[in-house]
Design a protein that fits this description.
Layout: E1 4-5, H1 8-30, E2 35-41, H2 45-60, E3 64-70, H3 76-88, E4 94-97, H4 107-113, H5 125-132, H6 141-154, E5 161-165, H7 172-181, E6 185-189, H8 196-201, E7 205-208, E8 226-229, E9 233-235, E10 238-240, H9 245-249, E11 254-255, H10 262-281
Parallel strand pairs: 1-11, 2-3, 2-4, 5-6, 5-7, 7-8, 8-11
Antiparallel strand pairs: 9-10
Helix pairs in contact: 1-10, 2-10, 6-7, 6-10
The structure holds NADPH dihydro-nicotinamide-adenine-dinucleotide phosphate.
């Protein structure tokens, strides 16, 4: 069997077109332009690439992009003051503080200072709590993108056996909450899970968010399973996922590649969340096809 390659790049391009169309309609009909503020502290090379790419795609979607770059030794008070100004700025509908932050800054204090209505990454405790309790939330972009790909591939996820490998607050936990809300039967695996290959072998849906190059191999996979690879690992062989694509593609029913799978979906979902936040801030209905 050779698995279907899930083309996240194409799906994300479609999603960005949808966002751009609805942004244009918002401007035409209501004279409102969504704005996304991205805050970068320090000069982490990967973060700089992500921030530039977010800014570029925000502008391409017809939205306003506000970039705030602070030096690596900026104080927590400076950062909190900036977040406070952005919270109060009515031209800013979404705020994203690029992680990781330098060690001297308390990440969770900064993230939780972001207004829940502008928290387009969905990382505040308020949004995580809403997601966990089934209330309307801003859903973290990477798991949101994974869920869109899964729904597109499989349709109804009710009763499906899903295994999420990884329990981080930004990927694994919200992914598990989303799959639970879709009525899948969800197992969350992590570094203390015993017999991980056996656990994964029962899954019809596997989401790998571990950060270990090519850890999941074909012999772990139930024939026909759908495999979503969140991993982004920089190795001497270039960018690779957490899944060994070649061996898994021989057994799975469908699989996302790295690059070109989940990665492009993350930024597209960030744009979608910014438009959603803007509509909600203005008392308008949620945009079509961009929320769950
Ligand atoms: P974290 O490091 O925060 O979490 C990794 C998780 O994997 C932890 O829960 C950890 O378990 C678990 N884990 C580590 N080693 C093993 C192991 N040997 N067996 C089973 N579980 C293990 O990572 P993130 O969730 O932030 O990111 C995961 C991956 O996804 C990374 O490669 C990251 O680069 C990528 N990523 C990609 C994005 C995209 O846009 N495509 C966005 C965000 C992340 P424990 O909790 O026990 O330590």
């Amino acid at each position: 069997m050779t698995a279907t390659r899930i083309d996240g790049k194409a799906y994300a391009a479609e999603l960005r077109r949808n966002v751009a169309d609805q942004v244009a309609a918002l401007k035409r009909d209501h004279d409102i332009i969504p704005g996304l503020a991205v805050v970068l502290v320090g000069e982490d090379p990967a973060s700089q690439i992500y921030v530039s790419s977010k800014g570029k795609q925000t502008v391409e979607a017809g939205m306003k992009s506000f970039e705030h770059r602070l030096p690596a030794d900026a104080s927590q008070a400076d950062l909190l003051a900036l977040v406070g100004r952005l919270n109060a700025d009515s031209s800013v509908h979404g705020i994203l503080v690029q992680l990781p932050l330098p060690d001297h800054i308390n990440e969770s204090e900064v993230i939780n200072a972001i207004s829940v209505r502008k928290d387009v990454d969905g990382f505040t405790v308020a949004n995580s709590g809403r997601l966990a309790t089934g209330q309307r939330a801003m859903v973290p972009c990477t798991p949101l993108g994974c869920l869109m790909l899964l729904r597109d591939q499989l349709g109804d996820l009710s009763g499906k056996e899903a295994v999420v490998i990884g329990r981080s607050n930004i990927v694994g936990k919200p992914m598990a909450a989303l799959l639970t809300a879709e009525n899948a039967t969800v197992t969350v695996a992590h570094s203390r899970t015993k017999d991980l290959p056996d656990v994964v072998r029962r899954a019809e849906i596997v989401v790998a968010a571990v950060g270990r190059p090519k850890m999941v191999t074909g012999d772990w996979i139930r024939p026909g399973a759908t495999v979503i690879d969140v991993g982004i690992n920089r190795t001497d062989d270039g960018l690779v996922g957490d899944v060994d694509y070649d061996s898994v593609a021989g057994v799975a029913g469908a699989i996302t590649p790295v690059p070109g799978g989940v990665g492009p979906m993350t930024i597209a979902c960030l744009l979608a969340n910014t438009l959603t936040a803007c509509c909600r801030a203005n008392g308008l209905p949620d945009p079509e096809g961009l929320t769950l």
